[in-house]
Each structure stands twice: as C-alpha cells, then as structure tokens.
From TrEMBL:
Organism encoding this protein: Sedimentitalea arenosa
Alphabetical keyword list: Signal
Domain Ig-like SoxY: 31-139
Range of residues in the leader sequence: 1-22
Protein name as it appears in the record: Quinoprotein dehydrogenase-associated SoxYZ-like carrier
GTP-binding is among the record's keywords: no
Gene3D superfamilies: Immunoglobulins, SoxY domain
Domain Sulphur oxidation protein SoxZ: residue ranges: 177-263
Pfam families associated with the record: SoxY (PF13501), SoxZ (PF08770)
InterPro entries for the chain: Fuse-rel_SoxYZ, Ig-like_fold, Ig_E-set, SoxY, SoxY_sf, SoxZ_dom
Taxonomy, superkingdom: Bacteria
Higher taxonomy: Bacteria, Pseudomonadati, Pseudomonadota, Alphaproteobacteria, Rhodobacterales
C-alpha cells in the first residue's frame, strides 16, 4: 500500500492521472489512493489540530493524535492535504504497531484545503478524520525560498534532536505517562519544483526530504515518507516511548543525500 500511495502521488504530480488532485474532490482522491477499500469515520480515534487560517502558508503546523480502538493497534498514518500539488504529504510507517501515536509537522499549505488523516490498524481498518484549513493566499508551494541558496546547501541535511516530556495537551490515552516527544529540526530547502530562482528566473529543481528513519535503542521505530508539502527547514515532533535511551535519525533526500543525527536521553 505504501508503494501504491507514493506511485499514485508521483503520477498525479506529473499530470498522468486525470483529474489532477489539485482539482479533484475527496471522493476522487480517495478512489485514486485506496480503490474500493472502505474508509471508516475515525470518531475520537484520530484528532487533528490545525489553525483555522494559516498565519504563514509556507510554514503551518499540522498536528494529530491517534489512539487505536480496543483490540487493535496503529501501524500506519497517512496525512493528505487534498489541494496541495502533492496531496499525500506524509506517511508514518511504524516498525512495530502501537496503541497510540502523535505527530506535529510544519507543512506548506498551497491554498484552502481539506486535510485528511488516515490511520491504518492491524486488523485492516482505515480510520479517517477530516478538517479544513483556510490560507492567506500566498501560494506556498511556488513561493520563493526564504534561505540564501549557498547557505541552504552548506547546511543541507543537518538536524537537531531534542527529547521532552509528552505535551500535556496531546491525548495518548492510558499510555500518556509512558510517552516522551522527539523533536527533529531539519535544515533542508524542500524545493517544490514550482519555485523560481529570483536571479536566473529558471525553476529550481525539485528536492525534498524523501524519508526520515527513526531508530530507538538501535531498533527501527518509524519511517516517515515526505513530500514537497514539507516546509522549508521542516520541524517534526513525534511521540516515543519514555523508556527509550538512544535515538538515531537518518534523513535521505530525493537527490540521494544522507545525513544521520544521534542523541541519548542522558545527553539532552
């Protein structure tokens, strides 16, 4: 399913699937991504937190907390910004299913859009929750980069890791006391392929964070698939078990650049 989501998004970006996702309804998008698979209303199992209207279209926080229904666990979470040029904006694949998971990520919001978060459970259900974001109309995916190009290349891939106690606002049901929050601050220009170089007036080639692989105590924890929806120099926060002692995060971008950052709880 993960390969299908990514492949479908790539085709839609190239305009090879009609209608394009920028113009399609959620019904069309759901069909393109999930086929005949039923999507069930998540109810309280998935809660999304976004601003009513963006303060900065190029950097908007998208937050969600997921708590699996009784008798099952979460193994994948998909974030979809329906009207963004690359609607499948992030996919969280958990190495081991969890009863609860939360994330907070900075994204570009290209225009007013529904936001869907789909949680896949170990018993095969797809639970969906929806909200809507209004924007200021700056067209974030085509907005010029905010970082000097030479500086962006010099720091590309650098990461800062921070581990804190779980946000008391974050709902993690009975496991809340056993959670911490891993904050990953990335240096990456996240070029969308739609931005124009302000000197040459040529389009800047697409280059973004393709995957972010997180290991806890030398064991895979979650693999995050990115997109051009990630903001420039994106920030990502995820819930992790409080018992974890070491963290390793590997960033791979679409040009093949690989960077790794490591930290221990005692050293943070």
């Amino acid at each position: 399913m993960r390969k299908r989501l990514i492949a479908t998004t790539a085709l839609l970006m190239c305009g090879l699937v009609q209608p394009t996702l920028a113009e399609s309804s959620w019904s069309d998008l759901r069909s393109a991504l999930y086929g005949e698979t039923a999507l069930l209303s998540a109810g309280d199992a998935v809660r999304i937190d976004t601003p009513y209207r963006t303060m900065d279209d190029a950097r908007t926080r998208i937050q969600a907390s997921v708590a699996a229904p009784d008798g099952t666990q979460i193994d994948r979470i998909t974030v979809i910004l329906d009207q963004n040029p690359m609607p499948v904006s992030a996919v969280f694949d958990l190495a081991r299913p969890l009863p609860a998971f939360a994330f907070d990520v900075t994204m570009r919001v290209n225009g007013p859009t529904p936001v869907h978060v789909v949680a896949t459970t170990t018993d095969g259900r797809h639970l969906v929750s929806e909200t809507f974001i209004k924007t200021s109309g700056s067209g974030a995916c085509a907005a010029p980069p905010g970082t000097d190009p030479e500086e962006a290349l010099a720091t590309l891939g650098q990461m800062r890791l921070d581990i804190t106690h779980a946000d008391p606002v974050t709902r993690l049901t009975a496991t809340e006391a056993q959670q911490r929050t891993l904050n990953v601050s990335m240096m990456h220009p996240s070029h969308s392929g739609m931005q124009m170089d302000q000197i040459s007036l040529l389009f800047i080639p697409m280059r973004y964070v393709q995957t972010l692989d997180v290991q806890l105590d030398a064991e895979p924890f979650v693999s995050v698939t990115g997109s051009i929806s990630l903001s420039e120099n994106p920030d990502l926060s995820i819930s992790i078990p409080a018992a974890a002692q070491t963290v390793s995060v590997t960033l791979t971008d679409t040009d093949g650049t690989v960077n790794t950052a490591q930290a221990s709880v005692a050293g943070l």
